[in-house]
């Protein structure tokens, strides 16, 4: 199930991979897109793919976040016993669905972390730094305990999903994936870098807008924690180089290199680690400001 708002190009690239997975259904919801999302989805999926359905999205109700509303509509349309939500910018490798189903034999609810791909040096400095950040602080059992989840790939048994209230129960949450995982009695976060690839933000501006919409929520909706995080990362990864402490600078660089290697991602973005906290400053500022929008919709 793919919630899609202004995702024409991503669908053109990634929908064929989903159609090859062998699922009972591949559902794309056109969330009132302002581009050619619906036309591209029909063009790619509407021919010779009986499993494909394009669902026209309904207007966003009051107190709902856009993605949550789209996922809720998809879930109510789906027929299968397993519900798999994935973003349009995630590329599924052949056989990835089999890996998800194997995991669901052990856990009724799981989320996978894709390999993060980057398009240019600015996003290469930022996206892996942000997405791999928690792995620099907490081992996997603690991430599991905190119910850290990733909505880019989220799979759950149908009966459990509706028993938890589905996306309706977290309709106003920016971090809907984490909120839903925290409602589940059993949950598993898995490393999916061999099965999934995601290219979240093609440009630096989109990264600032995209991360800016949820950075405050990531930092427990507390501006003091948000600003403390900004200072911490500058002090740990950037300032040692400016003050001639190459030993500390190299330690920070080595730590991020290790995270990249363990996650199975490209190693070279870790060389840009000293720049990442500086490039993140506009994101921290945007997170603190009111009136944020994402894909033409208010996020507050």
Automatic annotation (TrEMBL):
Tagged with keyword Transmembrane helix: yes
Record-linked Gene3D superfamilies: Spore Coat Polysaccharide Biosynthesis Protein SpsA, Chain A (3.90.550.10)
Keywords, alphabetical: Membrane, Transferase, Transmembrane, Transmembrane helix
Domain Glycosyltransferase 2-like as annotated: residue spans: 2-107
Single Gene Ontology MF annotation: transferase activity
InterPro entries named among the record's database cross-references: Glyco_trans_2-like, Nucleotide-diphossugar_trans
Transmembrane segments: 224-243, 266-285
Protein name: Glycosyl transferase
Taxonomic source organism: Thermus scotoductus
High-level lineage: Bacteria, Thermotogati, Deinococcota, Deinococci, Thermales
């Amino acid at each position: 199930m793919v919630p899609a708002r202004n995702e024409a190009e991503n669908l053109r690239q990634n929908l064929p991979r989903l159609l090859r997975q062998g699922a009972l259904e591949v559902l794309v919801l056109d969330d009132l897109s302002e581009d050619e999302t619906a036309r591209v989805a029909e063009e790619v999926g509407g021919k010779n793919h009986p499993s494909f359905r394009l669902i026209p999205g309904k207007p966003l109700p009051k107190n709902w976040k856009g993605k949550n509303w789209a996922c809720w509509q998809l879930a109510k349309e789906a027929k299968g016993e397993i519900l798999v939500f994935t973003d349009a910018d995630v590329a599924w490798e052949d056989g990835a669905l089999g890996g998800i189903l194997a995991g669901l034999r052990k856990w009724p609810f799981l989320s996978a972390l894709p390999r993060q791909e980057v398009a240019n040096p600015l996003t290469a400095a930022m996206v892996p730094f942000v997405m791999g950040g928690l792995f620099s602080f907490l081992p996997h059992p603690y991430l599991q305990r905190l119910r850290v989840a990733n909505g880019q790939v989220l799979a759950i048994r149908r009966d459990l999903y509706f028993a938890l209230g589905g996306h309706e129960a977290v309709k106003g949450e920016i971090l809907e994936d984490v909120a839903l995982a925290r409602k589940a009695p059993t949950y598993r976060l898995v490393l999916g870098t061999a099965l999934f690839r995601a290219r979240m933000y093609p440009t630096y501006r989109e990264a600032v807008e995209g991360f800016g919409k949820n950075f405050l929520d990531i930092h427990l909706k507390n501006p003091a924690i948000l600003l403390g995080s900004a200072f911490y990362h500058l002090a740990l990864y950037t300032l040692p180089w400016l003050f001639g402490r190459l030993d500390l600078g190299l330690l920070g660089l080595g730590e991020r290199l290790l995270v990249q290697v363990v996650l199975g991602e490209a190693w070279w973005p870790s060389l840009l680690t000293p720049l990442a906290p500086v490039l993140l400053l506009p994101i921290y500022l945007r997170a603190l400001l009111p009136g944020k929008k994402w894909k033409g919709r208010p996020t507050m």
